[in-house]
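Example (one chain per record):
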Amino acid sequence: MSALPRAHELGVIGCHVCGLVCRDTGVQGAACPRCGSALHRRMPGSRARTWALLIAAFILYIPANFLPIMRTVSLGDVDDNTILTGVVELWVKGSPDLAIIVFTASIVVPMMKFLVMVTLLLSVHRGTNWARTQRAKLYRLVEFIGYWSMLDVFVVSLLTALVQFGFFSEVEPLPGVVYFGLTVILTMLAAMSFDQRMIWDCKDEDD
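Predicted structure:
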């Protein structure tokens, strides 16, 4: 199957900020007429910046899992819970729905984002034309779930509010929440810094 025309062959360029398709004038430093952002065929330093942010996020994700994320006090018992022990605590306390939300938002989603972003970066580095459409969809999925990545932090806030309803006598956020929040922010920045147009750059243009 012959390859579809590329943007540079059609004389157009897409703005990486607002998505507007603009006429490529070839002028260095040209700006998008809609949002004013500089137009680039590819975002400068995208791969290096994405790798740096992703590695930093993974480093912070380690203490986010091993440091206590919340403290619960119930009937005189004080428990400092990590993410996983917090999931167990929620389940035992009769909140399986919250336990599932915390597990999904804190374990499943971050690990999936790490795996997807590493796959995208490695495939871009190799310049392969393997499953480009599927990889583009994976990137859009990472972008979408990024907006829900702070659910774990919100749950801790929700648990604090539950004190008023007598489910727990006291709930207190601990340093693990900070590390997890930083991990989420860095993974979101990594996804934003990745220029998805690089997916379509390959050594072999034939599918």
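Caption: Residues 96-126 form the longest helix (31 residues).
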